[in-house]
Design goal:
The chain is mainly α. The chain contains 9 helices and no strands. It has one domain: Globin-like (Orthogonal Bundle), CATH 1.10.490. Protoporphyrin IX containing FE binds next to helix 6, helix 7 and helix 8.
């Protein structure tokens, strides 16, 4: 039986779980001027990091093994677009579907990239970590009040993790184990 997932519901559940609420969205929106001003630099840093590591670099090379600058430029724009959309993040019906589609492009390579296979999920996780760190440094440098920068950074961290949960959907299959029939109480621990 195919499993139907209520993605907007899952997004709301995750947001509640990590404590991503309206106050946090406000903190993220307030960082728009500084983040947007340095968006190009930030996306360039993410791509420099991709190119530094052979496992991620290979996705940006042409047939001759050289960096495909045109494609790289296009990808930088996609990442900058994603960053802008993240600032306008809402717990609505559309956002999780967009995050899902973005994730699927990475986990299920389109025909023109099929020969390279999926982008390994560890690089998706690593990219979120890299972005969180870069944003934290940027906010600390650009905001006058270091405590406000720290609070904004915490809000961004939560947002990126909630997105990552959905973006990994094409990689991770939750296989929950059901409790055995008729057992409401936790089973007695078994001595091994
Ligand atoms: C936080 C993690 C990431 C985000 C948010 C992200 C975002 C995006 C977005 C928005 C697109 C455009 C999708 C579209 O055209 O519909 C894209 C495409 C792409 N990304 Fe990423 N990306 C991430 C990580 C990575 C990593 C780790 C790699 C490789 C090491 C990568 C390689 C690519 C490639 C090759 C494409 C082009 C897909 C195609 O062939 O059409 N991305 N990415």
């Amino acid at each position: 039986m195919p499993r139907i997932v209520d993605w907007p519901g899952r997004l709301r559940e995750m947001a509640a779980f990590v404590g991503l609420d309206e106050d946090q969205f406000e903190l993220i929106r307030a960082t728009a001027p500084v983040v947007l001003e340095r968006a190009e630099e930030l996306t360039a840093a993410v791509y420099d990091n991709f190119l530094k590591h052979p496992g991620s670099r290979k996705f940006f090379l042409n047939e001759k093994g050289e960096v495909d600058e045109t494609r790289l430029d296009r990808r930088k724009h996609s990442l900058a677009r994603w960053l802008r959309a993240s600032i306008d993040f809402k717990l609505d019906e559309d956002y999780p579907i967009r995050a899902l589609a973005t994730g699927i492009v990475h986990s299920h390579p389109p025909v023109h990239r099929a020969h390279l296979g999926s982008i390994p999920s560890r690089f998706m996780i690593g990219t979120m970590s890299f972005t969180q760190t870069a944003l934290a440094e940027l906010l600390l440098q650009e905001m006058d009040d270091p405590e406000a920068a720290m609070r904004a950074s915490v809000a961004w961290n939560k947002l990126l993790m909630v997105q990552l949960d959905i973006m990994l959907a094409g990689y991770v299959t939750d296989i929950p184990t059901e409790p055995p029939e008729g057992t409401e109480e936790p089973a007695e621990p078994v001595d091994l």
